[in-house]
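testing teh design pipeline on a random one, pls ignore if ur not involved
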């Protein structure tokens, strides 16, 4: 088969899927486009928007109606807006912004609704300000109640919208305003929101009409809906891959035979290989989430030598613009990136990598962005992540802020976490979240008696002793400013080369177990665990354009190796031993 024919076949599959989407939209049907990694989901979404603009745009404008396009990031919204030349008949924004635009005028219902949200119950009970007729607002995503205003958390907007979607009058108003609603990356929709859409709007007489674009195998975030099925949806597969080389697409097709993809160029071969460390004969780790993995110091040596092999023998360029190392392990990651002491403070990696700990969330989401903006002299940007913008009326006010920030930068470089926290509390220029303040107070006053929060207090006390520069290193890693990355920072992205390091240390992932189940069947009651592992594995393997390498620090059994061999081929599953 010639390269040109292969290209045409891939393009024909894409054109066929996009034509089917347009046909369904024209016929008044709800549609779900299921497209694997690299298939061009955003392209198909844009084509659907262009079709609706061309065929329905004038009619919509006359009636004062719009097409809603829901995305999950501001970056995606900007890309789609540019591709349709900013056509005003289309409302493009994130799910939170879209839902808030729908519910914001229902003030009495919003005030009633927050009383049923679990996170608000304790806050309302403890608040000295009673719930009355305050205006409900949503801006920066922080919960607060004051005499004149109530501000919502991001999750509150979703919960309140779910409640209103059951209201028939609200459904009619929504359909009248947005006859067409397209959802990008549908699998990442909040599970409660998607369920409310299915129950109340899919197939509703009078609309709205839906188009869902995504891939349920790329659901990797907690609380999201994943696969969506409904008699009211016409499912259309898109069987193309415009990202990856033939070798990589071949692995993806064997992994997922029900949605085979045609590569875009049969002459673009690339490589896909998998290496394991089964030949190591020492004592592997045995504790809970680490069972079967190499000891950390051994894993570090193995990974370093394996990277050197890829550079020397296979020509890999490990600059961060050309190669990503996806660390689906936490065995060597912390030490490699410079926050190993910080990592030892936590018993679960999710507490700091996913920012579940209140201190880490404050540092990563507020303090570090503010400090980074200050170093760039972007003073307007500096205050945005901090919430309340201070009044700066004079040059003296500005000079005081500059002095404060310079002292803070010095503490970040040379002080401990405790030094930074104490400085912020003493100066009161940057407000600490209530959760951080409570944790600090408990750490200060606890006298050692056995209480349920003892572990939390010990964690806070230990965290205070860590050099703050390790927090900076952690934040750089989370934000993807190194060649290394975790799952969340690369979803939807692509790189020339991808090395996936798979080991233990994450309580929700066990790669040897997943590979065994993929080959021999999923045990009863393990479907959720299997799909969680499968989806992350698939997302990771589908990021590269040219070269894919898997490196297992976790020991693999015979069944797991058999699965890998069936996917990669016998010649591309190899043992690696460090010298």
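output:
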């Amino acid at each position: 088969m010639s390269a040109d024919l292969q290209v045409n076949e891939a393009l024909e599959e894409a054109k066929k899927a996009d034509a089917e989407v347009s046909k369904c939209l024209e016929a008044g049907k709800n549609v779900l486009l299921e497209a694997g990694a690299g298939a061009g989901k955003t392209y198909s979404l844009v084509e659907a928007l262009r079709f609706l603009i061309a065929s329905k745009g004038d009619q919509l404008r006359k009636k004062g109606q719009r097409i809603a396009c829901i995305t999950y990031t501001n970056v995606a919204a900007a890309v789609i807006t540019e591709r349709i030349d900013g056509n005003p008949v289309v409302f493009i924004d994130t799910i939170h912004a879209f839902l808030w635009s729908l519910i914001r005028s229902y003030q009495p219902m919003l005030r009633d609704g927050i009383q049923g949200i679990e996170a608000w119950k304790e806050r309302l009970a403890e608040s000295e300000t009673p719930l009355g007729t305050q205006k409900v607002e949503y801006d920066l995503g922080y919960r607060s109640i004051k005499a004149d205003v109530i501000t919502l958390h991001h999750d509150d907007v979703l919960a309140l919208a779910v409640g209103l979607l059951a209201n028939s009058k609200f459904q009619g108003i929504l359909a009248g305003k947005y006859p067409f609603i397209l959802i990008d990356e549908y699998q990442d929709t909040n599970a409660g929101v998607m369920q409310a859409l299915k129950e109340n709007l899919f197939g509703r007489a009078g609309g709205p009409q839906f188009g869902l674009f995504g891939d349920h195998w790329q659901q990797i975030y907690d609380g999201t809906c994943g696969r969506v099925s409904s008699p009211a949806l016409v499912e259309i597969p898109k069987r193309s891959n415009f990202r990856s080389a033939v070798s990589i697409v071949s692995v993806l097709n064997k992994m997922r035979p029900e949605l085979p993809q045609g590569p875009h160029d049969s002459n673009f071969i690339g490589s896909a290989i998998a290496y394991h460390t089964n030949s190591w004969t020492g004592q592997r780790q045995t504790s809970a989430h680490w069972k079967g993995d190499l000891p950390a110091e051994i894993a570090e040596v193995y990974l370093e030598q394996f990277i050197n092999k890829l550079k020397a023998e296979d020509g890999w360029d490990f600059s961060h613009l050309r190669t990503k190392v996806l660390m689906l392990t936490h065995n060597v990651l912390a030490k490699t990136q410079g926050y190993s002491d910080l990592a030892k403070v936590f018993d679960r990696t999710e507490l700091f990598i996913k920012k579940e700990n209140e201190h880490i969330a404050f540092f990563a989401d507020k303090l570090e962005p503010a400090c980074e903006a200050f170093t760039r002299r972007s003073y307007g940007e500096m205050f945005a992540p901090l919430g309340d913008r201070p009044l700066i009326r004079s040059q003296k006010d500005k000079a005081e802020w500059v002095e404060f920030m310079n002292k803070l930068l010095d503490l970040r470089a040379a002080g401990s976490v405790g030094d930074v926290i104490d400085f912020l509390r003493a100066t009161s220029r940057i407000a600490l979240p209530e959760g951080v303040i409570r944790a600090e107070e408990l750490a200060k006053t606890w006298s050692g008696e056995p209480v349920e929060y003892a572990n939390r207090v010990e964690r806070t006390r230990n965290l205070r002793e860590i050099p703050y520069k390790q927090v900076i290193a952690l934040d750089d890693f989370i934000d993807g400013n190194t060649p290394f990355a975790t799952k969340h920072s690369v979803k939807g992205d692509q790189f020339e080369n991808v090395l996936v390091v798979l080991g233990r240390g994450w309580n929700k992932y066990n790669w040897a177990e997943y590979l065994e189940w993929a080959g021999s069947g999923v045990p009863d009651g393990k479907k959720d665990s299997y799909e969680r592992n499968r989806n992350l594995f698939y997302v990771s393997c589908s990021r590269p354009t040219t070269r894919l390498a898997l490196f297992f620090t976790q020991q693999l059994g015979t069944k797991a190796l058999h699965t890998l061999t069936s996917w990669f081929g016998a010649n591309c599953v190899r043992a690696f031993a460090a010298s």
